[in-house]
Write a structure and sequence with these properties.
Blueprint (H helix, E strand, L loop, with lengths): L1 E6 L11 H4 L5 E4 L5 H11 L3 E3 L9 H4 L11 H9 L9 E2 L4 E10 L5 E9 L2 E2 L7 E2 L1 H9 L2 H11 L5 E4 L18 H10 L3 E4 L12 E4 L2 E5 L2 E6 L6
């Protein structure tokens, strides 16, 4: 299963009239944050493949629609507050938002136990480490409890499909894997706990720009391959038997 991963930059190879032909063998798309909604729209309409996304720490004009608790603030008109609370944005732009949730993509098959075809299992986490108290920024403790809330869904995956997760889509990197030491670009320690506990085949992140071609894009840690999706790259998810 070939998956196109994008983040942080409008790649001219993707944002192109020839993208349909160039990526004709792609089965799915992962958008790892800091991308304009118009870019995600273009990818969905051009490639017409299942697309999943999370938010980063920039390009957050629509973030409040997906996280209604952060929009219904003091002084909000009651009618507007009701609309915000009931408006489902989970498939807006034709892409599935996986920030702090786990989803099953039944149109994409992965071979599970007893060689039965099972859905692709994806979970995600939006945002970066907190560095200036901006929107979609979290302390490591806050992020840990958001990941902890995913545990019941992942345990159910394990019972039903024989594995917790195939892909963990994030914006920030795990701590000490691809991250940087400045306040904005440090990774989350709890991501290391998460991938050790739930063993996704891939953790795909953005946030870390690859200006040096010698910088690593793929790093293996345990059973998980950590991928920096900056600009674009392609991963191949094996049909794994559990």
């Amino acid at each position: 299963m070939k998956i196109l991963c994008v983040s942080d930059q409008l790649d001219p190879l993707v944002y192109s009239t020839t993208a349909r032909d160039r990526f004709s063998d792609i089965d799915a798309v992962l958008c790892a944050g800091d991308l304009p909604s118009d870019y995600i729209d273009f990818i969905v309409s051009t490639l017409n493949k299942p697309t999943f996304f999370v938010f980063g720490n920039h390009n957050l004009t629509e973030f409040s629609f997906y996280h209604r608790s952060q929009t219904v603030q003091k002084g909000t008109h009651p009618t507007l507050a009701k609309e915000i609370a009931t408006y489902d944005m989970s498939h807006h732009h034709g892409a599935v938002y996986v920030g702090f949730k786990a989803v099953h993509e039944k149109s994409l098959a992965v071979t599970g136990r007893k060689n039965k075809e099972t859905p692709l299992l994806v979970a995600g986490a939006s945002g970066s480490i907190r560095y200036n108290n901006g929107l979609c920024q979290y302390t490591n403790r806050q992020m840990f409890f958001r990941l902890l809330a995913l545990t019941p869904s992942l345990l159910w995956n394990k019972i039903r499909y024989g594995r917790y997760l195939d892909i963990f889509l994030t914006h920030a990197a795990p701590r000490h894997i691809h991250d940087r030491e400045d306040a904005c670009h440090k990774g989350f320690d709890c991501f290391n706990w998460f991938i050790k506990k739930f063993q996704p085949a891939y953790l795909v992140h953005g946030h870390i720009h690859l200006y040096d071609m010698n910088s690593p894009r793929f790093t293996q840690t345990g059973n998980t391959t950590v991928v920096n999706a900056f600009s674009h790259c392609i991963i191949d998810l094996p049909r794994r038997t559990t």
